[in-house]
């Protein structure tokens, strides 16, 4: 039964003599009533060449404007328009393949209800994201641990770069835990098929843009997860890749033409240097190598100047949002794209889904460098329309030096102050996605020397600073690990797999420090949901003094004062020094400890600690 459904859903094709398994159409379906009405169908045969580019569609409301042939005769592209009066149904597409006249069934569907309210609703500063690597979170269905016919048959939790067996059912099984932790939004590394020879656990080498990986449970379980999240009032972020796909993708193994990816005389990797894209003194050669070089040997670099390839990516991005009920999009390796194309694709998504959130991975160094890739206030020839970015600057040059460097004029917590002071470069800093760690960065607990007090400060900052906080699965229970040499930053979530001695879902086997940090995150994240000052309010901060940094989140209804002492000694807190924000209040309640503080007195904050205080009259 599953095989029959797979053939129907993916191939969508039949001949006059019965089902044909050798022709596929991308996108595999569309919807009536979309703003994106002009579609370019890519038709692919895995068998015989197409003998003619003549394509006929006789379906009310749909017109064919142009067809295209390629050097590889197993492909055709067909430009169609879906008129406003088109009704849902199965469209018959007639074409010629050698001596055969073929008919392919291509569905146009009715759009789901709830656009902008129950899907494509956007992710805001009121949300709390949890980034999960599905393969490493929880194994909810052992029957899909290995899938016959797929290249990667590894399944060994003792090897960090093999598959471990986590799946989407495992996530569904633990939604109560995630919601209880205050998480409102889930972001997964890509869940689309990665039929590569090895290293398929991360998901970024996509081999089929129109199929959820069977080892995660396939399309239907992903839709169920999306529905379950929305029924809980939670949201879903898709990790979309404009820049590359896997070397085992059919477009790489059997391309329509040679120019669908960037070709070099010999393998040429990107420089990973973003500066030539905005440097007024940069050479064209450096700019080209940055954008057109391959991110990895196993990840062919997409040529966005090829209009067919560009259309394929744009249409697939829209298709994923509509098909799976996506609320926000994280864009992988954003800085390596053709940025004019990226603007075009971003705009297509925003035209179709005005409330959709889009944030890009701009893993660069320098606040201005990062701002260049998002909507900004910088006068440069190229202007990005990307609404937001993952804020690596507040990580690299903010909270990490704040907790790992001694205080100095440009060191320690002053780095965090300086970095946040540069928010004037961005159009809307509240859209930035804050982080302590992710699947490419070392676990924060390891970075701060496995110091629970510093980890606690990290989360208190993450959940109170401006922007959208993003947690990385397991860091709430002090998971540790570096990227090199062993990749332990991608270890399994404790309790997600049969036989685990520790279980973070139940608390079994956790140390007191692990439980304490987990409870801190749970308490503060759930408080954050109710805090208008943190989720919607303004921010004011004061110049750090002797390792102590004070900032406020406030609106007309609430004021939250955050006191961060990064020194190795206790510090006096004189609330009168901050009377711009404190003068109308008498007391404060510590949100984490529930203790009350009199603002008329001078009190002492312990070394290496942070207070989150709600001021009260």
UniProtKB/TrEMBL annotation:
Domain named Glycosyl hydrolase family 13 catalytic: residues: 131-528
Entry keywords, A to Z: Glycosidase, Hydrolase, Signal
InterPro entries the record matches: Cyc-maltodext_N, Cyclo-malto-dextrinase_C, GH, GH13_cat_dom, Glyco_hydro_b, Ig-like_fold, Ig_E-set
GO BP term, example: carbohydrate metabolic process
Signal peptide: 1-20
GO molecular function: hydrolase activity, acting on glycosyl bonds
Domain of life of the native organism: Bacteria
Name of the protein: Alpha-amylase
Source organism (scientific name): Solitalea longa
């Amino acid at each position: 039964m599953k095989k029959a459904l797979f053939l129907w859903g993916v191939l969508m094709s039949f001949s006059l003599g019965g089902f044909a398994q050798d022709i596929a159409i991308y996108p595999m379906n569309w919807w009536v009533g979309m703003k994106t009405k002009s579609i370019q169908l890519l038709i692919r045969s895995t068998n015989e060449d197409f003998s003619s580019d003549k394509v006929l569609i006789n379906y009310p409301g749909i017109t064919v404007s142009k067809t295209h042939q390629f050097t590889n005769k197993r492909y055709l592209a067909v430009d169609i328009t879906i008129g406003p009066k088109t009704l849902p149904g199965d469209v018959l597409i007639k074409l010629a393949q050698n001596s055969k006249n073929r008919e392919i069934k291509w569905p146009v569907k009715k759009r789901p209800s709830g656009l902008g309210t129950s899907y494509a609703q956007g992710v805001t500063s009121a949300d709390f994201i949890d980034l999960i690597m599905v393969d490493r979170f929880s194994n909810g269905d052992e029957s899909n641990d290995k899938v016959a016919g797929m290249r990667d048959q590894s399944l060994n939790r003792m090897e960090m770069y093999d598959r471990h067996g986590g799946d989407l059912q495992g996530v569904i099984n633990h939604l109560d835990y995630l919601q209880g932790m205050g998480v409102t939004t889930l972001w997964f590394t890509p869940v689309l098929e990665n039929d590569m020879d090895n290293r398929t656990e991360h998901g970024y080498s996509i081999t089929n843009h129109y199929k959820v990986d069977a080892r995660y449970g396939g399309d239907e379980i992903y839709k169920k997860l999306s529905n379950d999240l929305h029924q809980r009032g939670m949201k879903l972020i898709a990790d979309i890749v404009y820049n590359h796909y896997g070397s085992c993708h059919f477009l790489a193994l059997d391309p329509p033409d040679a120019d669908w990816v960037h070709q070099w005389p010999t393998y040429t990797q990107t420089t990973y240097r973003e500066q030539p894209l905005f440097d007024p003194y940069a050479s064209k050669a450096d700019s080209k190598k940055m954008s057109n070089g391959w991110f990895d040997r196993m990840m062919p670099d997409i040529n966005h100047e090829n209009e067919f390839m560009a259309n394929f990516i744009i249409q697939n991005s829209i298709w994923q949002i509509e098909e799976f009920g996506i609320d926000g999009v994280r864009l992988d390796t954003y800085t390596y794209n053709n940025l004019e194309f990226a603007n075009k694709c971003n705009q297509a998504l925003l035209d179709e889904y005005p409330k959709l959130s889009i944030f890009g991975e701009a893993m660069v160094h320098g606040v201005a460098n990062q701002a260049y890739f998002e909507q900004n206030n910088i006068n440069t020839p190229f202007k990005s329309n990307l609404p937001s970015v993952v804020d690596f600057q507040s990580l690299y040059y903010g909270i990490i030096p704040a907790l790992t460097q001694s205080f100095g004029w440009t060191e320690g917590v002053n780095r965090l102050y300086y970095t946040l002071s540069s928010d004037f470069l961005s159009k809307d800093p509240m859209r930035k996605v804050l982080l302590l760690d992710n699947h490419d960065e070392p676990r924060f607990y390891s970075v701060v020397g496995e110091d629970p007090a510093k980890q606690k400060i990290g989360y208190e900052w993450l959940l109170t600073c401006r922007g959208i906080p993003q947690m990385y699965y397991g860091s709430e229970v002090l998971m540790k690990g570096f990227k090199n040499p062993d990749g332990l930053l991608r270890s399994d979530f404790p309790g997600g797999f049969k036989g685990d001695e520790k279980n973070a879902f139940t608390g079994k086997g956790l140390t007191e420090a692990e439980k304490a940090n987990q409870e801190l995150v749970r308490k503060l994240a759930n408080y954050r949901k109710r805090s208008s000052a943190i989720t919607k309010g303004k921010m004011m901060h004061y110049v750090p003094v002797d390792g102590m940094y004070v900032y406020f989140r406030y609106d007309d209804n609430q004021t939250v004062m955050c006191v961060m002492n990064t020194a190795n000694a206790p510090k006096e807190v004189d609330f009168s020094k901050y009377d711009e924000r404190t003068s109308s209040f008498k007391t404060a309640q510590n949100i984490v400890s529930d203790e009350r503080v009199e603002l008329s007195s001078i009190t002492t904050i312990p070394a290496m600690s942070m207070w989150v205080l709600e001021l009260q009259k």
